[in-house]
Amino acid sequence: MSGQTHRRIALFAVLVGLGIVTGSRPSATGQDRDQQVASDMQRASREVVSTAATAADRFESRHLILYIDKGLLSTAAEQQFSADLEKGFVVASDYLQRTFNSRQRGVGKPSYYLTNRAGISHAGATDVFLFARRVIASPAIAIHETVHLLLVRTATTGRNREDLSADEEATLMATSGLWLVEGMASYVADELAARVPLPPARLFFDGDNSTVDTEARKWLAESRGQKVAPFVGSHGIPEDFLADRPNVAAPFYVLGHSLVKFMIRRAGVSAMARLYEEHFDGTRSIEDDVKRVTRKELSQWREEWLRFLADIR
Ligand SMILES: [Zn+2]
């Protein structure tokens, strides 16, 4: 990685990862456990970047650079993965009407790393880490991460800032709409996978945008879903979000995905992309940002969505 200094990955960026179970420490709180996972991932991600030149094979395409850890794939499979990643990037960029603003981000192209060494998949403003064990089997997960990458509008302001202290980060996170971030990336990945073409991402349920509402309804009928539901269409992050993926992240992603689908179908994808960007560029609460961008209270969106789910047959 000549000439590129790796930036700290904000906890927000780490939080957008997916799908791995990590060991938990029974004496610690959920927040301690999440913080531990996040800092382990930051350290590991830095290591992946600094060793890429020797540990990985490099592929450059029109919009991005991809490093694949040696030994993961045959040469033919590496080329196929690189081609699909580039196509997924292009369809996401077209759909969201966003490009990688390289001058503002300080690098010409984003770097993607397909690796098992950096923990769950996650994206920052310039680097995307793809958890090989999940993403090789389900390459549309890369589109999910590309959505996160493209919707960082200003890497140096608000929640996107990479120099937030732990206290500032905690304060901002308490008023954040994480459901919006994960719901948006999950919805868009499923919407676009077939255009690459790839099967749906199947991150946390065995279905896609056509079945997500039924899955959400199932989660609401059980305790693990009920436990995270107060954070969906609201603010803050449930405890153990990073540390307990099957019981906390799974229902949270599915519920956020269903709510974002509901809002996109009514407010439109361009308003929702703008909401995502403005929320993370800034420091206002998710309630304020939703009201400003959609001209409707978040609590009302939430109520209408829950009523819609209750009426599914
Ligand atoms: Zn995500």
In a few lines, what is going on in this structure?
The protein has 313 residues and is an alpha/beta fold.
Sum up the structure in keywords:
313 residues, 5 strands, alpha/beta, binds zinc ion, Neutral Protease, domain 2, five-stranded mixed sheet
User: Which ligands, by name, code or SMILES, are bound?
Assistant: zinc ion
As for the CATH topology, it is: Neutral Protease, domain 2
- In the CATH hierarchy, what is the superfamily? Neutral Protease Domain 2
Order of helices and strands: HHEEHHEEEHHHHHHHHHH
Describe the protein in words.
By secondary structure, this protein is α/β, with parallel strands linked by helices. It has a single domain (11-310), classed as Neutral Protease Domain 2 (Neutral Protease, domain 2, Orthogonal Bundle). The chain has 14 helices and 5 strands. It has helices at residues 11-15, 30-55, 75-96, 102-105, 132-135, 141-150, 166-174, 178-192, 212-220, 223-228, 245-267, 269-281, 286-294, 298-310; strands at residues 56-60, 65-69, 111-115, 122-123, 127-131. The protein has a 5-stranded mixed sheet with strand order 1-2-3-5-4, with helices on both faces. Strand 4 (122-123) and strand 5 form a beta hairpin. Helix 9 (212-220) crosses helix 11. The longest helix has 26 residues, at 30-55. The radius of gyration is 18 Å and the shape is globular. 47% of the residues are buried. Residues 1-11 and 16-26 have low confidence and may be disordered. The structure holds zinc ion. Residues 16, 18, 144, 148, 182, 185 line the site of zinc ion.
